[in-house]
Amino acid sequence: MLPDCLIHTILSHIGYKEAARLTILSKSWLQAWLTHPNLEFRVYDFKYIKKVDEIMERYRDQKIPIEKFNLSIFSSGEVLSLIDKWLKIALQNGVNHLEFGYVDFGRTLYPLPHVFTILAAKSLRKLVLKDCDLMQLSLSSGHVAKYGDSLRELCLLGVRLDDNMLQTLVTTCPMIVSFSIKHCIGLKKIELQNLQKIKMVSIHIDKKQPVEIQAPTLEHLVFCGLAEKSLMLDIGACQNLKSLKLSSVRISDGLLAHLTSRCQFLESLMLDNIVSKGLEKSKVCESQSLKNLEIRCCSGTTVIDAPNLESLDYVGNEIPVLKTTKTFGPLKHSRLELYSRENISDLWFRKLRKYLFNSNSWSHVTLHFPSCIKIDLENWDPCRGIFAIPQVDVLNVHLIGSLKCPSFADALLWSCHPRKLNLFSTKQMITYFNNHLMYMKNSSRSNPWQYQLKDLRVHKFDLEDLRKQPVEHNERRRIRFSLYWR
């Protein structure tokens, strides 16, 4: 009973294959699928080739509009002569989003001869090219001009091209808003200039390549390289950058501080697998605008100076240093995950507590310990210096080994007050940890954290069905301790 226009709208929001299943509902749904605006083909053999050709000819003859055309070819000699035909039909029928990929198991890239004709399509807004060869195109012909005035997104994945071709594509498409280039072959340098509307750039390289971006309108930049190669990135004219992600790169001393200091509107920064080239610590220099910070698996100790953070996500081997003029207020999101490799001591727990103290509360803290060892607390005055104990919503502790160390549990719970504690360990360690907490709760012995413990509840959760069960430590389980503090 639905009108045809509504059926078309429904089908336009789901995939081509999923839409085909709805053809059994009625003739109206069948007819709507026959004119589906989004086409997605993965061509493997002659059977698929014949079917796709029939569909494309029907769309051409009936002038059925095409909004999205996704064509993936898996090496087949019979289809090569039809690729240009199918692409031409899609362009003639007003395609808005075009994706073309060619996979040859012999490692041969498909020479795309009509890329400038594709760019000339007035309806085209997004173009994705995968595993194509653009080196054979002639750049001396007169048709190379600003044909891509309508294009807004350009993505090149595994494409073979040289520096001249890249510059030609950029010149041809001056109005693009989003540009991605990933694992392309043949480039010696990536240079992006004179892009008047560019907002987002994503670059993934497989070898050491200088990258220069001169784009005052750029707001979002993603750069992924090789950790063993030094970063050669120049974004001097990108003063309006709002988000920056650096992944798998080696940086020299002061580069990170230099980048963050020049971007006065930077709100989001992500550092993933960053290797410091020199001996100095990696520094996120003073930034009043920075709100979201994520640091994952970076070498060395990271110094963070950003007093207006709202979200902090840190994963690493060392406790970072927070340098702020004031302690944080409650963060909207905060996550800390540490993989301890050094010898755990009372000094380590002091550093952890000091780090957590910079915020009133933390969402998640995850600690990985290679073993449970004895902590020397004989000459330790835990109340000296810092009186308030940081609050943690969820504390996840991963322990290897089953050594009974009450001082370890005391130091751990002195470092923070978790509302929920998830312990991952052997059944012996879980049982011991539970019994120790119960003992300390009911004990009158003075303890750095015991005097604030109000209640303790222990539940076991089966990872398969997540149902509460009685606490029986017959095997390795996930145990949740619900702790309530005064």
Automatic annotation (TrEMBL):
Superkingdom, natural source: Eukaryota
InterPro entries in the record: At1g61320/At1g61330-like, F-box-like_dom_sf, F-box_dom, LRR_At1g61320_AtMIF1, LRR_dom_sf, LRR_FXL15/At3g58940/PEG3-like
Ranges where the F-box domain occurs: 2-38
Domain At1g61320/AtMIF1 LRR: 65-233
Chain ranges of the F-box/LRR-repeat protein 15/At3g58940/PEG3-like LRR domain: 239-315
PANTHER family per UniProt: F-BOX DOMAIN-CONTAINING PROTEIN, OS02G0105600 PROTEIN
Protein name as catalogued: F-box protein At5g03100-like
Organism: Nicotiana sylvestris
Gene behind the chain: LOC104246164
